[in-house]
Hints:
single chain; mainly alpha; 70% helix; 0% strand; Cytochrome c oxidase subunit 8, mitochondrial; transit peptide; mitochondrion
Amino acid sequence: MRPQIASRVAGLRTVTRQNFSTSAPRMSSPYHYPSGPRSNLPFDPLNKFFGVKFVTFCAVGFALPFGIAVWQTKKKSFL
């Protein structure tokens, strides 16, 4: 039984090596974009004003529907 297990493991190793070696050229990019953490974001989260901008963006997005609802309900009384 041990030779069967050894042959299966050896077969898996060659398949793994083969897949890894053939996938490397396909994964390399010819466009040379920067890679790494935060390189694909359209903003800089390390900027010192990022927190203020982010909180403002979220607060406006959350409060806007409530403000519109209040304005729609009060609109008839103003006109």
